[in-house]
Amino acid sequence: MKWITYDVPPQPGSNVPLNPYFDQQLIANISQNAGTFYPGKVGATNGLTTPAEVAGGVLTNTNNNLVVDWKNMSPAALNASLYNDWGQSQQTAQCLGIDGGGSTGSTGAWWGGAWVLGSGQTQGMVIVGTNNKDPFADPCTPGPDLWSASYMALNITTGAWIWAFQTTAHDNWDYDCSWYGGMANETINGVNTEVILKTCKDGYLFETNALTGALIWAWDPPSGIETPGSSRCSLCFPFNPQNASQMGGDFPTSVTNCAPTWTISCLRGPQPPYLQWPPELAGFESEQAYDPTTNMIYATGHVVPSYTGYAGLNASTYFSATGIIGVPCPNCGTLYNNATTWAINGLTGALAWHYPTASLQGYRGQTDVSGNVVYTVLSSGDIKMINAATGQLLRDYYIGAPMDQGVSIGASVNGQEFILVPVGTCSFEAVSTCPGTTQGDVVALTLQNIPTTTTTATVTTTSVTTTTTTSVSVTTLPGQTITTTTTLPGGAVVTTTITGTATTVTMSGSGTATTTVTTSSGTSSTALYGVAAVAVIFIIATGYLAMRGRKPAS
Questions:
Q1: Residue 259 backbone dihedrals phi, psi, to 5 degrees
Q2: Are 459 and 472 in contact (CB under 8 A)?
Q3: 350 pLDDT band (50/70/90 cuts)?
Q4: If exposure means fewest CB atoms within 10 Å of the residue's CB, which of 62, 127, 204, 220 is most exposed?
């Protein structure tokens, strides 16, 4: 083994002594930034959220107004918030009674997505993510629980931590920072800057400086699109990692249920249920897409709320349960179930368009972009093809089998373009739309590849005393443009641009006339095949659709 490194304190029973100062020492050894996301830090009107945070959309980090900066905090302030963060040392009688003096909790590596290896400016770095706090709801982890629900950078040669960014403090919701992470380049203040794009289960999309870990902006779905109000429940916004009452509760409703005194006995006991969104099934729990040619991020998230109740933990369940449970809660609110695909500017975080990808189901799998087309796959058996520039649906292609993995696009040795997609399994978020688990298959669809071509026709006519007319006719395909350049006697040039199904170019005059006709398709060569595909795509396994039947009536 080359090296081993830790992101949480030693646990009881390990070969390393317990250390209530572990967080402070790790932060001191981090070479760049170390912070926790808290968008209510400046301007909170209720002790928790700001109006801009509730409205959703892009939040720009200016002078760390969205981040609690542990790296530049005084030792006294660090100790006030982080001493014995995970509660492993000096356990309370309540905790000793339910964990038997064992571990109070921990976190693990992210899942559902690959680590991001640095290159160029970040050569030698690797960006990794962490899981939720385990258990989700328990009375024995009294701090922000660094570094659960985080993504971090380390030196791949030495294992030393370079920077750390926690997205959810004291994660009582199951908001681990798994799934998508990607690298991009942005010009910030005139400087080419490598950035990390990251979605987490808390429903935010983050852009972070890949070298330093400094947050650039955070994006949350705007209010009024996925649901009539805010994109998240009132108790589903990030809590304040420096607020002992918010960190001391073992269930989100304790923040309101135990106000205004917030006694320990109330914070760490039974709490009322609530409607949670994003829920355990997340706001984003899929892979996203980034197009460097347009600097656009295409992300698909969902609203699949759940009625969440307090389960409590005891000596028999502490190491096998999460502390939360689904419960009936008819007065908690409306269960909206839908999925939305978002197009977001990589530099500014501004929303370009959104498309309602699905209703009555969530989304897990992958969003892909290729050839100016965004592809999403659904458990209802549909592949959605969306215009990447406008957000308009190009085609809803019904496969007839559930999908929770993204499409792959490539070419055979003879240049034929294909879409490949595995089918057969519904995701957890399918809700009521799954057509039923089927035998696993890989389905291949062909894409008609119409390359951009140039055709030149030269016609020369010579006359001394007569006038000669030469006609050249060219037929266009839908979406094509014909550019005609005519050189007249004496050097005059006439250029005509024509669109449509057919056109005729007529020249007249004496002497020599040379006509060049150039034909090009309506999209760039890099974007053409995907646009053409929506008209000509067909399934190779021709018996498959017949076996699956027609799409149910909606």
A1: -70, 150
A2: yes
A3: very high
A4: 62
At a CB cut-off of 8 Å and minimum separation 6, what does 518 contact? 454, 455, 456, 482, 483, 484, 485
Q: Give me 383's structure tokens.
A: 């592949």
Sheet holding 57-60, edge to edge: 57-60, 215-220, 205-209, 191-199, 181-188
Question: pLDDT tens digit string along 394-420?
Answer: 999 988 888 888 899 888 888 888 899
pLDDT of 33 higher than 80: yes
Closest C-alpha to 336, from 226, 473, 232, 433: 226
- For residue 57, which of 162, 265, 203 has the smallest C-alpha distance? 203
Q: Which one, of 281, 430, 284, 428, lies nearest residue 360 by Cα? A: 430
Neighbours of 36 (CB within 10 A): 27
Decide if 302 contacts 335 (C-beta within 8 A).
Answer: no
Token pair of 396 as six digits: 């809803």
Tell me the CB-side half-sphere exposure of residue 177, using CA atoms within 13 A. 29
Q: Taking a C-beta distance cutoff of 8 angstroms, is the pair 165, 202 a contact?
A: no
Closest CA to 322 of 199, 171, 431: 171
Question: Average pLDDT, whole number, for the chain?
Answer: 82
Collapse the DSSP code of 545 into the 3-class scheme (helix H, G, I; strand E, B; otherwise coil) and give the result. helix
- Integer Cα distance of 4 and 6 in angstroms: 7
Label residue 244 by pLDDT band (50, 70, 90): very high
